[in-house]
Amino acid sequence: MRIQRSLVLAGLGLLALGLAGCQSTAKHSSASFKDSQSSTKTYHAAKPDAAVTASSSSKIAQTYQPRAAQTQAKGYVKSGKLQQKGQYTFDKVGTKLTLTRVHALNQTIKSGQLTYRVTSVRLIKNVAENDQAKRMAAQALNLAEIKSPYYTLQVKFTILNRGKRAVTTDGIKAIQLGNHQRLTAANQLSDASAGKTIPAHRQLATFATGLAGQETQPTFTHVKLAFAGGYDQRQHQLVKPSGWLIVDLS
User: Fold this and answer.
1) 48 - beta bridge partners?
2) In total, how many domains does the chain have?
């Protein structure tokens, strides 16, 4: 069973999920994790509207305030809740986030007693307004350095446990972007569901965030998702990994 490794990150939330390092509970982090040992009954992951920097373990003060001129353009959202293409906001360290693509979905795949339902895929353009923002983003994404702008993919999904036993999910096994780039927990993917326990006949609303590209906006027209297995409290496998769920974004 994969051990949840929290993303030194966040929104990617847009967005929570398992890179190396200790789990962060930074306020407003889109990668706000619930204790992986606790039961999930009515838990909903925080909405993935913050930059990945929000979950960084850096002790740098997160006090960035945009200049008045930066907030005058059409589409500025002070609350950070980006819902429509073109809307933008700023995080607390100086990253401008712009929602460039959003797709509302309702696609499912089943494996054993679990049903996975993908409800949204979003692409966010992240522009670091200062060196601090770049350092924290690189740290959150487990990179030596990062180029600005960089793009993050956010996938919102629910996991329904139809069975009579609680299941601890290992979350997403991989996300394939188009025909090339693949994201995993070891490769710039943060998954808020990894390590969560879902009681019988309950569901978890959650999300995952990954690095989709740097400098140039990605142009993939579909993504494929595969979910990892599920386990009981003794780490015996109850649910096998799923096949690929193809999500059309054209």
Assistant:
1) none
2) 1
How far, rounded to the nearest angstrom, does the alpha carbon of residue 208 sit from its chain's CA centroid?
3
| Helix or strand (DSSP H, E) at 136 | helix 131-140
Kind plus residue range of the DSSP H or E element containing 68: none
CB 177 within 8 A of CB 183: yes
Contact between 152 and 95 (Cβ < 8 Å): no
Residue with the bigger pLDDT between 191 and 113: it is 113
Domain contains 146: yes
CATH value at residue 164: 2.60.40
The pLDDT value given to residue 180: 80
Residue 116 contacts residue 161 (beta carbons within 8 Å): no
User: Which H helix or E strand runs over 55?
Assistant: none
Global pTM value: 0.77
Q: What is the pLDDT of residues 48-96, one digit of tens each?
A: 455 665 555 555 666 778 888 888 889 999 887 899 999 999 988 889 9
Q: Which residue has the higher pLDDT, 5 or 180?
A: 180
Angle at 17 between CA 127 and CA 167, to 5 degrees: 160
Residue 15 lies in a domain: no
35 closest CA partner among 197, 202, 200, 203: 197
The answer to whether residue 222 scores a pLDDT higher than 90 is yes
- What is the dihedral angle through the alpha carbons of 130, 136, 141, 146, rounded to the nearest 10 degrees? 30
> Is the CB of residue 151 less than 8 Å from the CB of residue 217?
yes
First to last CA, the chain: 34
Cα 134 to Cα 4, 32, 141, distances in angstroms = 25, 20, 11
